[in-house]
Specification:
heterodimer, A: about 170 residues, mainly alpha, 6 helices, elongated, B: about 650 residues, alpha+beta, six-stranded antiparallel beta sheet, 10 strands
Amino acid sequence: MKRIVAALVVAIGVAGLSPAYAVQPDEIMSDPAKESRARDLSRELRCMVCQNQSIDDSEAPLARDLRLLVRERIAAGDSDAQVIDFLVARYGEFVLLKPRLKPHTLLLWLLPPLALAGGGLALWIYNRRRSRSAASGDQSLSKLTAEEEARLERLIAAEPSAEGPA
Amino acid sequence: MIAEAGHYALVLALALALIQSTVPILGARLHDPALMNVARSTALAQLLFVAASFAALVTLHVTSDFSLVNVFENSHSQKPLIYKITGVWGNHEGSMLLWVSILALFGGLVAAFGNNLPLSLRAHVLAVQAWVASAFYLFILITSNPFLRIANPPIEGRDLNPVLQDIGLAVHPPMLYLGYVGFSISFSFAVAALIEGRIDAAWARWVRPWTLVAWIFLTLGIAMGSYWAYYELGWGGWWFWDPVENASLMPWLAGTALLHSAVVMEKRNALKVWTILLSILTFSLSLLGTFLVRSGVLTSVHAFATDPTRGVFILLILCIFIGGSLSLYAWRASALKQGGLFAPISREGALVLNNLFLTTACATVFIGTLYPLALEVLTGDKISVGAPFFNLTFAPLFLPLMIAVPFGPLLAWKRGDLLGAAQRLTAAGIAALIAIAVLWAWTRGGSAFAPLAIGLAVFVIAGALSDLAERTGLFRGPIGTAMRRARGLPRATWGTAFAHAGVGVALIGIVCETTWNSEYIGSMKPGDVADIAGYELKLDGVSQRQGPNFREMIGQFAVSLDGKPLSAMTPSKRNFTTRGSSTTEAALLTRGASQLYISLGDTNADGAIAVRIYHKPLVLLIWWGPVLMAFGGMLSLSDRRLRVGAPKPAKALRGLQAAE
């Protein structure tokens, strides 16, 4: 969908839109466990020249280089965290699709739970206030306008029989 | 000539919209029915002229008039007819014209079928609708005119982006826009209510069908887009948390919340202020989506800065409408009376909970989408927020919501009985536990959460069914009585059950696809066999073919299961000469709700072809779910109680409801 919408957005003149797919047969590592680690890591890393694509999805040459780099580091015995650190040291935080919790991403991570907590709190307060004001028993309904009164008259007149028990 | 006529029709539509945005308001101030009725005729005339303008652009595309910039840049004389038509909205200018056409269509529908609305409300609604329309007509005419000519017309066009040359383009954008723009009606109703300073349960009755229509189209549009991406892009992904996708998801989440809060308002005359706010927010998010997609701000903040005309214009529209409507809200909302008290444990309470989670989910998507943009503009730091972030934050919000879904319809209005609802959900809970146990025993691999998530989905589906069983008295009395009661149930009840079950169905599909998907990536030569999930796929051969505006390489695969031949699959790779780009046409073999998926890559030097094969278990449920939801929406829409025009209440139905 991304490529389609990207195409819809830019519509023309975007280089490298030819759909091929991401991981090529010649990139795959012989050890399935290591390969699956590489795939999982690839999904967390951004292809920096693409629009929000992970290197696992992208067919850009840079993504291929990064995929090979990830596999190189894994083959050299790095842990997942070491591979990520290596890439961040080289390419910056921009390469991470899931930003680390740092001062400048604090709001990003905190706002969703705060929104939920804030919403819940607002509801609680609202509910308390409502139940208090309910005790004072003020239940005013908005009055009908003249136009609505006239319409109501017409509707009542148009209904011949009395309303049955509902 | 046709281009000029189309252009002129658009200018006339703008003029009509300007009249429609002022005269009816004046009429409402002066209590002059004639002036208020101007809204109706201008809305219909506006629809006529925009339709003429749109028809002109379609004609120009179909006849391949390359003297038009828009046609030259996005069409080709050899392109099949269907793509000549769909290509009209496969570009910026044309898609904006489609946007305003749909806006005019909704305005026209309100004008045509709004006879039952109070005159001043209709005048206000149509006037607000015309404000939005005027802004976007101006936007098109000033910055994105599709009717511009080229001085020296070329003989051939540049062709449409090949990725877009697909039936998906015929369905996805129009559906999505019908959804996006459809929310403009609830927005107009909300603003009109704020201007008039009065709002009641009848207001919700008028708004709910329109919201429902928009929601149905948006649901189908998003699902269709997702399926299109799945089969077109060649790696079987169906949701990427891309900003452009998020732009359509945000109005959907807010719209879903709106749909539920409108129910409370209609039935219980409560949550009025909140419903108004949601109506405003939902359409604001649609506008935001339009801004994100159309301004180029997503490609990069810098691209936006180098050619800011369009972006700044839409940003201006965005600020005026969102800022204006929210200020109006802040100013007038306190004038609206609150009604309908309810206890926290009640149907209303459940719907409020639904709203809390849906709007928080919406806020999460909003923050994740805009935070990187804001951070870059403010500090210059570049960060990425992608799928891993959204999966991590979105899932914890959706899971509690899913647990609550089956409880909602079982709780009574005003004051509900949670224990009683839980008792009535015992069967659903047992079904869920059985599903979890069976999955734990039978499946290997994958996350431990997968069986739990599927159990939750089963609980949602079984919960929807037990609600129906409860209401019809199935298993408690003779089957005939249950059948009669089932026929008597309001369609909206059926709609709720279908829509809720659809959520569960989609969740099963999502979990199965992500957990038990198997893939084979390799180079194959003719005669090679690939084994995947018990299927054997033999590459019989590779052939070449010439299409109308492309050449394609086709791979012939013979599929067999346990040695028995099953079917043939022919994935292909197309090369479009005009743009020098290519697309993969994946081959899909559907087995029940599961699919085999093959896409072709490049050919190696030694003649082997790169092949990617997937087995995606129950993947189709991902899209059947939304289809079920939309079907539920349609059932609810066909409920006679929602048709405001229905003049006489049917006595028979009323009797049955009393038995409910």
